[in-house]
Amino acid sequence: MSQAVELEVPPTAPGKTWTGRQVVILLVIGVGALMVSLTQSLLVPVMSELAVDLNTGSDGIAWLLTSTLLVGAVAVPAFGRLGDLYGTRRMVLVALSALVAGSLICALSDTLAWMIVGRAVVGLSVAVVPLSISLIGVTLPKEHAGSGIAVISAMLGVGGALGLPLAGVIAEYADYHVLFWICVAGGILAIPGIVLLVPEPVRSAKGRMDLAGTALLGGGILALLLPLAQGDSWGWGSGRTIGLFVAAAVLLVAFVLFELRIKSPLVDVRTTARPALLLTNVASLFVGFALFATLIGTATYVQAPAATGYGFGKSILVGGLCMLPGGIIMLLLSPVSAKLKPRIALIVGSLIIAVGFLSRIWLTGSLWEVVLGATIAGAGTGIAYAAMPGLIIHAAPRSELAAANGLNALFRSVGSSLASALGGAILAAKTIDLGGHALPSLGAYQLLFAICAGAAILAAALAVFIPTHSATADAAFPEE
């Protein structure tokens, strides 16, 4: 883990207002982060339309999401290290270029194979958000860096919440290819702004790219996430699923042992084991779990027929719009983390998430109650997500900041994958028969919400044990 920058923050008087240039820098970097986060939810509402148009089944269509997930999981830590070695800004531009190229392939494609290729290329862009967090942290003055980081962090949730209603509108009034053209346009808008306005910070990391470590970590992550994504169709007890889980364990253990022995590791395991970093990363896994469960447990819930006893029979568009207040509140409340100590913000945010999911268990009678619960969970997610980079920047060395943020993003990705696998299994296992169709029961959703509340409480509990004075002498920002 290394940050390619030397954090020399210009001395500025406390409370100094934002300059126009600083606002524009945050805006152009934020647009890139928002477009990348949008890509992770845009396709969900149009999956059935894609299946018909591409003449394939649900297994084939699932690869449009799985390919992005797998490539992104490998790209995030690799791009973090490359950012440390060769420049964070440079790697943000490379990742955004992948977003444009991959989205362009999809926009021009009418076959499943090329669509999967395009989505795999888009997976490289997942590294934009953690890289942008590092870039903001070293580009803006220290008194504004916290708020800027909070806004970029919130884009992870905001993009997911905005993507669903946007895709719902496109699904009802236009061709789904428009979704990909939107991503192309957003990437093209962000790239020149970053080139012209955002300086490349001075690199302080030394060494070379750890290709062997990248291969071991990438192989281990692929072996872990692939069965999580395909377990329902393969069977959780199948030899292929179990074999990949075993391979993941072996490869990840080998990766840790290998990283401990080399001078220029992809991930500095000793640094990662610092309590502040380790506890933050594990907590982020649980928060990532809860966020993704919000996506799969709200829109489909609202769209379910009223005959299920809980659904409202609403359209794709309405289902997506129910996520919109949560996305807006994430963005509005994310700066709250900058006003609080990061550890306190993570605790508070996680507990608010738990309250939101607990309300979803009991408040089922009307649409506004569903929206309220999802919005409360979104508020907590915005605060918690924005707190994590603050904890990392006080514990990771300045020469390892980009990779530290990348590793944190990887933990969130694993949490989301676990939510997808476990949530999908629960919704498929606890069903009711409605006109010959098996639909998730209310009990299935309530169980999912209870698990999410428990995950959020675990995240808060872990945050309690993060050292109060976690800043270290070699940290990016030594003083908390």
UniProtKB/TrEMBL annotation:
- The entry's keywords: Membrane, Transmembrane, Transmembrane helix, Transport
What GO MF annotations does this protein's record show?
Answer: transmembrane transporter activity
The protein's location, in the record's own words, is: Cell membrane
Q: What is its main location?
A: membrane
Which Gene3D superfamilies does the record match to this protein? Answer: MFS general substrate transporter like domains (1.20.1250.20)
Q: InterPro entries attached here?
A: MFS (IPR011701), MFS_dom (IPR020846), MFS_trans_sf (IPR036259)
Q: How does it sit in the membrane?
A: Multi-pass membrane protein
List, for all copies, the residue spans of the domain called Major facilitator superfamily (MFS) profile: 25-471
Q: Looking at the UniProt record for this protein, which Gene Ontology cellular component terms does it annotate, in alphabetical order?
A: plasma membrane
Enumerate the transmembrane spans.
23-48, 60-80, 92-114, 120-140, 147-170, 176-199, 211-229, 241-258, 278-304, 316-333, 345-364, 370-388, 409-432, 444-466
- Would you tell me the protein name for this molecule? MFS transporter
